Amino acid sequence: MASASPSQVRASIARRALDPVYLIVGDDDAEMLRLATDIAAVVEDELRAFNVERLYGGDKGVSAAAIVESCRLLPMMSDRRVVVVLRGERLLKPKRRGRAVEDADDEDGGEPPSDLDVLDEYLKRPETSTTLVIVASDVDRTRRVGKTLFKNATVVECWGLKPGKDARIVDLRQVARVAEQLVRQAVTDAGQQIDAPASRLIAERAGTDIVRLRGDLERLLLFTTGKPKITLADVREVVSAETAQDDWAVTNAIQQRNAPEALRQIGLALEGGGVPYMILGQLAWFVREKLADPRRIPAAIDAVFRTDIDLKSSAGDPRVLLERLVVELCG
Fold it and tell me: What are the structural domains of the chain?
């Protein structure tokens, strides 16, 4: 098994020296998706429609055979084809069958033939002109295809803040330190500064949940756009632990063009169990029926439509997608 860090893979992308198969595994969904997108970006912009294909494990028609068939296609007017399989755990870690059936398989000396066999064979002899990227939260290493994947693929682990998974985190005491480093780096990349108590609070609130940390960071950076320094008050405003909510508070804040309050209310709605698609439906109704300024309506409808597509295609964290929409609607 060849292992690589995200930075090492990005260095390979810069050299256009990609490996034939990558397995990106972990719980840091945002980083995993970014890395898969960076790999696909090695194909020229104008040729991606022909040479980049995204498939979702578990979707109708997405089987091991379909993935291999896509990988076998030759690049069109390019030297590289990229096939990205998202939600790979749905394909590589299916539900186990009954215990009696598994015991019978063990007595026969292995697994029975399955659809995954064709993928197993491909992983042993992949196409040199295609890069297959499998993004998964987990892989069953006891299955034949799992063993082959770890043996033949370049494995990139993105475990966020999990002690024992990230080499920088030996125990829970180091989680907050690494989380603060991630916060400061993200703020620096955005061209801003952050007070030490502010970075400490947002790191402590996330604990070992990298998804929550990245979501809070996205909201914080949206909220403080244009500010040179982020303060403790900014963090408290964005990552408030309040849970009381008003069903129409989000739309009321949008009507008033109060982006900070709209972001806060979106957070309360989701943390209170709100379903992203239902919240989007409410925002769409508001845009069509209640948006007061007719000059804002065309752009607002376009923003709702794009968010709907992104939600359905899993193009990002639902919370972040809704928050970006809210910022756009506030204008």
Answer: 2-158 (3.40.50.300), 171-239 (1.10.8.60), 242-331 (1.20.272)
